[in-house]
Amino acid sequence: DLLQLSDMYCLEGLKNVIQAQLRIEKCHLFHKPCLDCSVGVMETVEIAHIFNFIELKQTCIRWITKYFDRVMGLKSFAAINKQLQDEILAELQGSLTIMICIDHLKKVDRLKFNTPHIKWAEPVHIVLTAFMDSCLTFIAQNFPVISQREEFLDMLQVRNMDHLGFFYIKVQTFVKMGKLFRDAATDQNISKIQKNDRKCMKNAF
């Protein structure tokens, strides 16, 4: 009610007080996830989205992406609206670097495996699948560098896994690499054809 009143009458001071209260009571000042703030941050990001608290919303999104393997498998994440889930996915995708992509890939694989395949978790699996695909694509695009990193070589030597996630990862990485190489070859062939066409036209005249 206070939020609606502060928004209706443009009471910026009251808005700031409410945001500070949300940071403390709901988000626990964004420390490491606990049972309460794992739910509280999800509630806060929706409030921030509705009332256009831009800075608070971005802080929530960054916190969720930082601890995605601990909070995105929860019902509270599945319950937030799809637009926010898409924004969180985009933040995750944008955070990928050569240094962390393998670690993120292992975390998302583990989280997918541990998240139940039931109705409430469907939005979670959609986001996790999209992020895993982004990780695999990033690895394929940067394969010459990533393939030399110790964590990638360790991943390829994993044995006695409890599930087939890493087998899927290995196969999909090489499949995506092959597609990238085929696309590159196709582009090169098209370029050659266009070059030959221009040459033929020039000779014709």
How would you portray this structure in words?
Residues 27-146 form the BTBD8 BACK domain. It holds the Pfam family BACK_BTBD8. This is BTBD8 BACK domain-containing protein. The structure is a single chain. The protein is built from twelve helices and no strands. The longest helix has 40 residues, at 165-204. The model is unreliable at 159-164 and 199-205 (pLDDT under 50). It starts with a helix and ends with a helix. The chain has helices at residues 2-8, 12-26, 35-50, 54-66, 68-71, 75-79, 82-94, 101-114, 122-141, 143-146, 150-156, 165-204. It has 205 residues and is mainly alpha-helical.
Short description:
With 205 residues, the protein is mainly alpha-helical. It is built from twelve helices and no strands. Helix 8 runs antiparallel to helix 9 (122-141).
- Which band does the percent of strand residues land in? under 5%
Evaluate the radius of gyration.
Answer: 23 Å
Structural class: mainly alpha
Q: Given the C-alpha coordinates, what overall shape results?
A: elongated
Overall mean confidence score, pLDDT: 82
Number of helices: 12
Encode the helix/strand succession as letters: HHHHHHHHHHHH
Q: Oligomeric form of this entry? A: single chain
**What's the total count of β strands?**
0
**Sheet bearing the most strands, described?**
none
Calculate the terminal CA-CA distance, rounded to whole Å.
78 Å
The low-confidence runs, each spanning 5 or more residues with pLDDT under 50, are 159-164, 199-205
Tally of separate domains: 1
Helix content: over 70%
